[in-house]
Amino acid sequence: MQYQWYPGHMTKAKRQMQEDIKLVDLVIELVDARVPISSHNPDIDALCRQKARMVLLNKADLADEAKNQAWCDFYKNQGIFAVRLDARNRGGMKEVHRVIQDACKEKIERNLKRGILNRPVRAMVAGIPNVGKSTFINSFAGKACAKTGNKPGVTKGKQWIRLNKQVELLDTPGILWPKFEDQAIGKHLAYIGSIRDEIINREGLALELLKELLERYPQLLAGRFALLEPQTPLAAFEQIAQNRNCLKKGGGLDMDKAAGLLLEEFRSGKLGRITIEEPREQPAIAMDQ
Ligand code: G4P
Question: How far is the CA of 132 from the centre of ligand 1 (A)?
Answer without folding.
Answer: 5
